[in-house]
Amino acid sequence: MFLLLAMLTIVTACGNAGNGSSGAQSGAGENTEGESLRDIKVVLDWTPNTNHTGLYAAVDQGFYKEEGLHVEIIQPGQAGADTMVASGEVPFGVSYQEGVTQARTQGVPIVSIAAVIQHNTSGFAAPADRNIKSPKDFEGKTYGGWGSPIDSAVLDTIMGLEGGDVDKVKNVNMGDADFFTAIKRDIDFAWIFYGWTGIEAELRGEAIDMFYVKDYSEKLDYYTPVLISNEKTINEDPELVKAFMRATTKGYEYAIEHPEEAAGILSAAVPDLDKDLVLASQKWLSPKYQDDASRWGEQKAEVWQNYSDWMVEHGLLDQPLEVEKAYTNEFLPTE
């Protein structure tokens, strides 16, 4: 259980550093007089960002309402989105393949029902002036992380492939500092999501070198983030899951086809966000939601197997993952 908590800390913190913003926002649509809509909530993994645009678009464009749903988008409590969904407090949430994998092997009944982004857009970023041109150059540098075993395991993997030694990296806990604060203070590189922090660096005019983890091992090209539900909801109320996914799919398809309009929807729903960052991030991310998949949300068994195998190899799992129970494509629309 300690490892699960540690991993949830790293993915949440990485979401903060790479995809975060301040302030909570409820994106619920309004009931129209005379209509009977079912109230449900979906909990985010962190603060709102462009990973979540499809949810906000589905609210704004009335896609949930068309399915008879009144959806409120909420932020996670202290326990986190995985716990809220697993306990049945909310039926749907945003999570990560890392967290779902660890949770499933510990008997936590959450299930991934869609991949929000088809390929892993995270990696290690360093200011260009640190002269880090390959993972081997991490040697002698200071990494800003959150003290999770997964940090060292990923660093060990990609550095080892380049002939580097992870033991020669100094680790510093970033705490609540964001990437831009930390690199000016006491670190040389950190793990970010390019679609948010990398784009922000572009807008700031701060050159960075980016090392996407998926480029070094196919086992690290996992789904992050994903949409999750729990086994109870799936087994007892499959029509709800189907309705939610039909509408959510339309929301992400809208964001794929209309990135500028979708960015406007997110900015209107969450006015604390930097509008220029939201727009630039959305333009970068929209084509990556579906990418080379046959449809938005599609998940592949080999992606789940590869990553769980990697976790076992690095002692991050107590037992192998039952892949077929960790995810499903059953609720994705076929047309």
UniProtKB/TrEMBL annotation:
InterPro entries: NMT1/THI5 (IPR027939), SsuA/THI5 (IPR015168). Keywords: Signal. Residues 49-262 form the SsuA/THI5-like domain. It holds the Pfam family NMT1. Residues 1-17 form the signal peptide. SUPFAM superfamilies: Periplasmic binding protein-like II. This is ABC transporter substrate-binding protein. It comes from Paenibacillus polygoni.
